[in-house]
């Protein structure tokens, strides 16, 4: 009886260890591009002029790997720049960022299917792009004056959204096929 309890305890500890280890690896991997931004843009302790919670954004870099933070971002307008942070409990491996307005460049983008979006690039982190809805960027531009450069022409990095639209189209077609198949059964 004692041997069974010991064996169960050992298997439980191993199982929990494997589960939490895998979660650690997945969360760490998903935060790769965020950590790259954090290495260039650490967040100073400065008071926010205005804050918006539960905002949207997609971070991606070379190689096309992306991470969506839809509804998970807190954006703060500050005097000299924008502060970004991920809401808890999703904030593991995501240090708060502070990006000066003068380091930001943006282009119109067609990333989001349901809204206009802007792709942002950063002077000190050139390998990473951040795509946000245009309404969020307009809100940030009000505080930046002319310091944040947003161009009206489309982004020179157009390959990613086309793949995104293709994935959404394929997913929609599969859903319609499944509904049709279930209706005929």
The low-pLDDT segments are: none
Characterize the biggest β-sheet.
6 strands, mixed
Q: How do the strands line up in the largest sheet?
A: 3-2-9-8-7-10
- Tally the beta strands: 10
* Intertermini distance: 52 Å
**Mean of residue pLDDT values:** 84
- Number of H- or I-type helical stretches: 4
Structural class by sheet pairing and helices = alpha+beta
Radius of gyration: 21 Å
Shape annotation: flat
Q: Helical residue percent?
A: 40-55%
Proportion of residues in extended strands: 25-35%
Query: What is the H-and-E element order?
Result: HHEEEEEEEEEHEH
Describe the structure.
This protein has 185 residues and is an alpha+beta fold. A hairpin with a 2-residue loop joins strand 8 and strand 9. The relative contact order is 0.13. The model has no long low-confidence stretch (mean pLDDT 84).
Main attributes of the structure:
41% helix, 185 residues, 4-stranded antiparallel β-sheet, single chain, alpha+beta, 6-stranded mixed β-sheet, 30% strand
How is the secondary structure organized here?
Elements: H1 2-30, H2 32-40, E1 50-55, E2 58-61, E3 66-68, E4 73-77, E5 81-86, E6 97-100, E7 104-109, E8 117-122, E9 125-133, H3 134-144, E10 149-154, H4 159-184
Structure in a nutshell:
The protein has four helices and ten strands.
């Amino acid at each position: 009886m004692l041997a069974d309890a010991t064996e169960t305890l050992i298997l439980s500890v191993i199982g929990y260890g494997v589960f939490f280890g895998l979660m650690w690896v997945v969360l760490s991997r998903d935060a790769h591009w965020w950590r790259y931004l954090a290495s260039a843009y650490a967040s100073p302790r400065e008071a926010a002029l205005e804050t918006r919670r539960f905002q949207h954004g997609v971070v991606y870099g070379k190689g096309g790997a992306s991470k969506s933070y839809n509804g998970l971002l807190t954006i703060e307008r500050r005097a000299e720049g924008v502060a970004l942070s991920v809401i808890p409990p999703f904030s593991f491996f995501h240090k708060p960022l502070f990006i000066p307005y003068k380091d930001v460049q943006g282009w119109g983008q067609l990333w989001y299917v349901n809204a206009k979006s802007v792709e942002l690039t950063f002077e000190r982190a050139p390998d990473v792009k951040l795509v946000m809805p245009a309404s969020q960027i307009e809100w940030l531009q009000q505080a930046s004056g002319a310091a944040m450069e947003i161009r009206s022409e489309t982004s020179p990095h157009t390959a990613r959204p086309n793949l995104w639209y293709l994935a959404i189209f394929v997913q929609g077609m599969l859903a319609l096929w499944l509904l049709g198949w279930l209706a005929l059964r």
